[in-house]
Amino acid sequence: MATKLRINANCSSVAKASKHPPINFFYSHFHNSIRNELDMLSQSMSELSSASQEKIHGRLTILKNRYRFLEQVYKYHSSVEDEVVYPTLDSKVKNVTSAYSVEHEDEERLFEQLSALLSAALQQEGKARMATLRQLECKIEEVHTTLRKHLAKEEEQLFPLLLKHFSFAEQASSSIESAVAMPAL
After folding, report:
1. Over 60: is that where the pLDDT of 18 sits?
2. Where are the alpha helices (DSSP H) in 6-85?
3. Of 19, 96, 145, 160, which has the maximum CB count within 10 A?
């Protein structure tokens, strides 16, 4: 777990100058980045679906690389929430975040299934590959839908609680802890 950092509670001048709460970074910018990557993954799948037989292997490689990047970003995001944001919120608002951690576990399983399909498709040819590509397309849709719903739910339910129950300084401290807990890509 990340080391507890302290921010000077006398941040009123910074708070007045800022239009956005510090925690906004994770519940706006970071979530939008994940959404963008989900869209790019779907776009890569569309390009793969329309590719000629000669280009399928190359398109699969591109799709797998995009998937790996999204998976890493999402793992870091989930880890930060599970290790920093959720415990911090639970300290003030009880019994709110446990369902979100369970969702993270479910989403991790979706990523594992997607990875297995990608690996299989790269090794297969012909009809077997085409069948796996159809499964892959469905799995990407499932990941896309599930993650978007999860992000929206966090923004609609958790973000307002963070704003309501945490001062500017506490939000800044949590944001810094989150940044420190996130490994570099």
Report:
1. no
2. 12-17, 24, 31-49, 56-80
3. 96
With beta carbons less than 8 A apart as the criterion, state whether 173 and 6 touch: yes
Residue carrying the six token digits 């990941």: 143
For tokens 């000629």, the residue is 52
Cα separation, 180 vs 52, whole angstroms:
45
Sequence-distant (6+) residues with CB within 8 A of 85 are 26, 97, 158, 162, 174, 178
Q: Give the tens place of pLDDT for each residue, 51-95.
A: 888 899 999 999 999 999 999 989 888 888 888 888 888 988 988
Calculate ∠ Cα 47-41-122, nearest 5°: 70
Vertex 68 angle, CA 120 and 43, to 5°: 85
How far, in Å, are 107, 112, 116, 136 from residue 119 at the CA level?
18, 11, 5, 10
